[in-house]
Amino acid sequence: MPNQRMSSIAVITWAAVLTLVVLTGQVPSRAQGSPPNYTFLIATGFLCDTGDSSACPTVVKSANAESYEMTGAGALTSQGKSVTAAGTFTHKSADGVVLETGVWLANELVSFDSYGVVPGELTREGRALGPLRLGSPQFGLSQFGPRAAGVFSVPMEAGGMAVLRIRLLPVLGFARNATLQVNCALGKVPSEHAVEGIRLAVEGGGAEFDEEISGRVLFLLDRFAANAVPKAPTPDAETKPAAVEDPQ
To answer: Does 244 fall in a domain?
Structure first.
């Protein structure tokens, strides 16, 4: 049964790749004074629990009406260009026929522009989000890795745009490099980036997918990193008052 066999291959491939990501990925630190750390979700986790069918997956189309449907999650630092991320993709023809399916891995953070934290939106521990972990159900990767690597606690919803260099790994066929743009239109959003969603440019003469159709994405700012302020340096001057000569 070809369809069942392909499904089995897909599950095994996704499990193997995502386990590798979870086990070997470098989670950004929360050191005092470090640059802000972010988690980002692409049509996964609690974003899909709203009952809105357009929230998941994210869909982007090219000029010839082919499309990519993508989901994923990851963590990045706004400086230092550190990123760990993975997800799934489905490439469809203009008439909806599945051309390929597989997983994607991020290997480079090209840039990240923050739009700021959503005013008044402090994410609580008690919410469905809870303390985020790289292997938690909120990422949709709980079955693929350990839950010991805590990433965020009490994160805050934020907007921004990340540009990632990714590797597309189809179940059948050759791997390809691509550039993935992830845009969350929250906060102080530039007018040219007012549409939330993703864009994808496949290298090697592939089509450019630049029409955001649907899907939710979200950045979550680490509260600890946001509140981290370097301590003021201790003055070198003596704090002991100078002796005053007692007049006779």
So the answer is: no
